[in-house]
Specification:
This protein is of the alpha/beta class. The chain has two domains: about 160 residues, D-Maltodextrin-Binding Protein, domain 2, CATH 3.40.190; about 120 residues, D-Maltodextrin-Binding Protein, domain 2, CATH 3.40.190.10. It has 13 helices and eleven strands. It has a six-stranded mixed β-sheet with strand order 2-1-3-10-4-11, with helices on both faces. Helix 7 links the parallel strand 6 and strand 7. Helix 1 packs parallel to helix 11, helix 4 crosses helix 13 and helix 7 crosses helix 13. The chain is globular, with a radius of gyration of 23 Å.
């Protein structure tokens, strides 16, 4: 063996030893994890659907982990502030984020300058639930189905306004897609939340909107708005009589994708710790009271894992990228 070969062999052995040591350290950490409270960051204000879900899960997870799971609300900038705090936290499993698909997926295409790299700085842990929306219209709009609505907006070019709770949010992207494909020249009105959006829809200031079942269902039941259909591939358990838009022939990917709620950890968090967190989330979501709570919020629980979440993320990523580019939305 030459000296260079010997040197290469020593380097390889050192690298292998280092990798083995890191693996052993990660395994040891996972075996003792957790030894102190875990902080679950919610990058939205307290009281919203994401916050409610986080608190329900935190209570259940704490019992399984043997440590408190403390909710830390860090709202602002469409979830960017709280998500960035987790992206920059130590990758030890003691800081995680429960967020929506906007801060974990779509913001990377929407914002020109994002303080974190979603692919590099975050580890996907568990996709908790899908968040389909219901397409609702003002009672004065003379349609009952999705195809009828498409014909209506096309025939009333420039006369229909649709609402959303933010530029680049799904209700904006789906509305922009409808406007473009039907050559409807619809007007987009962005609100600071669902509540004011629904109030303007009820008042007739806008004619249609995509909204959560949590907010829209009481208004649908009161006859203040009409439900046309729901996004995604399955009917909502909380609105079982409202067909999906796909059922009605609206099979464009814009109407079949949905937002979601999920947990992520800082990039490079050891796999055994990621798996432990995922296992506890899964146990929590299998409890009947949690399932009832989530269904009542209009969400559809997923049976997930780090691997399943990663696969779904890779599949959805180009779809959202196309929708955002199509809408022309761009934020600084």
């Amino acid at each position: 063996m030459t000296s260079s070969q010997a040197s290469s062999r020593r380097a390889w052995l050192c690298a292998a030893a280092s990798a083995a040591a890191l693996c052993a350290t990660a395994t040891a950490q996972a075996q003792t994890y957790p030894t102190r409270p875990i902080k679950m960051v919610v990058p939205f204000a307290a009281g919203g659907a994401t916050d409610v879900l986080a608190r329900v899960l935190a209570e259940k997870m704490a019992a399984g982990l043997g440590q408190p799971v403390i909710i830390d609300n860090k709202p602002g900038a469409a979830g960017i502030i709280g998500t960035d705090a987790v992206a920059k936290a130590a990758p030890d499993g003691y800081t995680i984020v429960l967020s929506l698909s906007n801060s974990l997926l779509t913001n990377q295409f929407l914002y020109e300058k994002l303080p974190y790299d979603t692919q590099r700085d975050l580890t996907l842990v568990y996709q908790i639930a899908m968040a389909p929306l219901v397409l609702v219209v003002h009672p004065s709009v003379p349609v009952k189905t999705g195809p009828e609505l498409l014909k209506y907006v096309s025939a009333n070019k420039g006369k229909v306004a649709y609402g959303s709770y933010g530029v680049g949010a799904y209700p904006h992207l789906a509305g922009a897609h409808m406007s473009l494909t039907q050559n409807a020249d619809m007007n987009h009105v962005a609100y600071k939340g669902e509540a004011p959006m629904l109030q303007d829809l009820i008042g007739g200031q806008i004619q249609m909107a995509f909204a959560s079942a949590l907010v829209a269902k009481p208004q649908i039941e009161a006859g203040k708005v009409k439900a046309i259909g729901v996004t995604g591939d399955r009917r909502m358990s909380t609105l079982p009589n409202v067909p999906t838009l796909a059922e009605q022939g609206m099979k464009d990917e814009a109407y079949r994708v949905t937002g979601w709620l999920a947990i992520a950890a800082p990039g490079n968090t050891p796999k055994p710790i990621v798996q432990r967190i995922a296992d506890e989330v899964r146990k929590a979501t299998q409890q009947p009271d949690v399932q009832a709570k989530v269904a009542g919020m209009g969400f559809e629980l997923k049976d997930s894992s780090p691997e399943a979440f990663t696969a779904a993320y890779k599949q959805e990523r180009p779809v959202w990228e196309r929708l955002i580019k199509q809408s022309g939305a761009k934020l600084e």
